[in-house]
Specification:
A: 189 residues, mainly alpha, elongated, B: 119 residues, 5 helices, 79% helix, flat
Chain lengths: 189, 119
């Protein structure tokens, strides 16, 4: 097989990988859409005042910032800058972990303390939505950890970094979900 | 409705968002890319194009995060300052934010344009 044919075949494979990932994210988004519509169907524009607004805004900012570092990591490896790639992947992992601590470690106990429980009322929507999202953040952090370790071993290059691209796209997807969940849970009235 | 701690927390986070936006704009206008410029000065002609493309990609990312931070701050201000239904405003802001992420960070255009995603 000629070099041009090999390059063409690799390009086709990459296009198929991308299409597959987008279809996967589309199917995942159905789960989140159902949760979002359920929240409005059950509770309309109601929102408990007890939710910690400062914490909601803080975790949102953390997740937005992590999307920026994830973007930088992907751009860096695409242009052959391995050091910037590794640092930004690490920043993304740290920010993702901080988001998880903020939501599951701080916000959940605070909400329960304020009387918002998973068993009744608005708590059903709140814990379902944040719980499902937090699970996806956790899987994203684990994916990025694998990418970081592979990157540390020199597995990626500007020509071959599909693993980084896929993990980073997934991370942005998780961020997009939160873009809709944050106002639905904390802001709408 | 809110105690002093919560108001301080919200002010702190809103300030952080403005800080993120300013940091992004600072990067866009190249104040923090001195090291890259120095690298560019020493680079071989064959590496120059890569360095410039990488810098353009980083600056694009900085511009997008600046926009996202400002929109998030605006979203919060809209939610607390408008006393009628905020839903339409919040939906529009969320759609703009999601659009920025999907187009610039997730490179959705690669699906029909083919290879390459960074400026």
């Amino acid at each position: 097989m000629s070099t041009a044919a090999i390059a063409h075949s690799q390009h086709d494979r990459l296009s198929l990988n991308r299409l597959g990932l987008w279809l996967f994210m589309l199917s995942e988004s159905m789960i989140f859409l159902i949760l979002l519509f359920t929240r409005f169907y059950l509770f309309g524009l109601e929102r408990p005042e007890a939710l910690n607004q400062a914490l909601g805004l803080a975790v949102t900012s953390i997740l937005l910032l992590s999307s920026f570092t994830a973007y930088r990591a992907e751009a860096a490896i695409a242009h052959g800058d391995r050091t910037t790639f590794l640092w930004n992947t690490l920043y993304t992992i740290i920010l993702g972990t901080l988001f998880l601590i903020g939501v599951v470690g701080v916000e959940w106990p605070t909400a329960i303390h304020e009387g918002i429980t998973p068993q009744a009322g608005f708590g059903i929507a709140f814990f379902s939505m944040t719980g499902m999202h937090a699970f996806h953040v956790l899987t994203g952090v684990l994916l990025l950890l694998v990418v970081y370790l592979n990157g540390w071993r020199g597995a990626y290059s500007p020509e071959k970094h599909w693993g980084v691209e896929a993990a980073v796209k997934y991370w942005h997807f998780v961020d997009v979900v939160w873009v809709f969940f944050y106002p639905a849970l904390y802001l709408v009235s | 409705m809110y105690d002093v701690t919560r108001i301080s927390g919200i002010v702190a986070v809103l300030s952080a968002l403005v800080g993120i936006a300013l940091f992004g704009l600072f990067l866009v206008f190249g104040r923090l890319v001195g090291a890259e410029q120095a690298q560019e000065a020493e680079a071989r002609p064959s590496d120059l194009a890569t360095i410039r493309r990488r810098r353009a990609a980083f600056q694009l990312g900085a511009a997008v995060i600046a926009g996202l931070a400002l929109l998030t701050a605006l979203e919060y201000v809209v939610a607390v300052s408008i006393h009628s239904s905020t839903l339409p405003y919040l939906v529009v802001i969320a759609l703009i934010k999601a659009g920025l992420i999907v187009y610039y960070f997730m490179h959705i255009a690669q699906l029909w344009r083919g290879e390459g995603g960074h400026a």
